[in-house]
Amino acid sequence: MINSALATTFSTVLALIPLDIPNPPATMPQGLGGFITIMGWAKWVALAVCVLGLVAAGGMMAINSRRGEGGEHVGRIGMALGGVIVISAAGSLVGFLV
Fold it and tell me: Where are the alpha helices (DSSP H) in the chain?
């Protein structure tokens, strides 16, 4: 008797839960076109700065290698490469956190 009442209650609860859960497509809100453009420009400027930093660090390494100080710039190259990775992955990181 208890089992049949429990089964009836369970089937009633299952009937109330919709099995077809809607999944609407993601759309960009209106008015964000300018913001997206600015973010794209900022990303490309930041990547250009990182590339210039890599070129500068390589040049300093080449100049200072004659004096035996070339190894100090390896850290700068590592930081610039780390910056490139973070800038390139920024969109994915924000999408993951949101």
Answer: 2-16, 33-64, 74-88, 90-97
